[in-house]
Amino acid sequence: MPTFADPAFSRQAVLEAVDGDDFDTLIRAVELTVQAQAFSRFGLQHALNIDSITSEKMTRLLEELRVIGSGELDERRTVLIRIDRLTPLVAELHLTRSLHAA
User: Fold this and answer.
1) 11-101 maps to which CATH number?
2) What is the pLDDT of residue 21?
3) Which of 4, 9, 54, 88 has the fewest Cβ atoms nearer than 10 Å?
4) How far apart (Å, rounded) are the C-alpha atoms in residues 14 and 25?
5) Exposure of 34 by Cβ count < 10 A (0-12 exposed, 13-18 middle, 19+ buried)?
6) Domain boundary assignment for the chain
7) Pairwise CA distance, residues 26 & 50, whole Å
8) Phi and psi of 81, rounded to 5°?
9) Summary count for the chain: helices (H), strands (E)
10) C-alpha closest to that of 40 among 76, 78, 68, 79
11) How far out from the chain centre does Cα 87 lie?
C-alpha cells in the first residue's frame, strides 16, 4: 500500500472534485471517523444526517484520502488515521483546498 509520502499520492487531486458544501461535509466526516476510530457508511449517514448518495460519496472520498481502508461499500472499515493526527490532517486538507482555490 502506498504511504502518504508516496509521490503518486495527492490529496489535492482528490479534493479538486469536491465542491464547497461537500468539503464541509467531508471535514465533518473525517473528524467523526477519526475521533470514533470506527467507520461504517450507515453510521456516517446517521451521525451526519446525510442522504445515501452523499454517504456513498463521503465513503469513497475517505478511502481515496486514506482515512479509512478499502473494502466493500457497506462493510465496516479500518480507520487508518490515529486520533493524534486528526488536527494536522484537517489543517492539511484546509491548506490543500485553499491552495487549489487560489
Assistant:
1) 1.10.10
2) 86
3) 88
4) 15
5) buried
6) 11-101
7) 11
8) -105, 125
9) 5, 0
10) 76
11) 13
Q: Which pairs from 20-27 meet CB under 8 Å and 24+ separation?
A: 22/54, 22/57, 22/61, 23/97, 25/50, 25/54, 25/58, 26/58, 26/61, 26/62, 26/93, 27/90, 27/93, 27/94
pTM of the shown model: 0.86
User: Which amino acid, one-letter code, is at 37?
Assistant: Q
DSSP E strands in the chain: the ranges are none
C-alpha 61/C-alpha 50 separation (Å) is 15
Q: How far apart are CA 61 and CA 1, in angstroms?
A: 17
Which grid coordinates are listed for 25? 461535509
Contacts of 16 (CB under 8 A, 6+ apart): 100
Tens of pLDDT, residues 23-68:
999 999 999 999 999 999 999 999 999 999 999 999 999 999 999 9
Q: Do 83 and 67 form a contact (C-beta atoms < 8 A)?
A: no
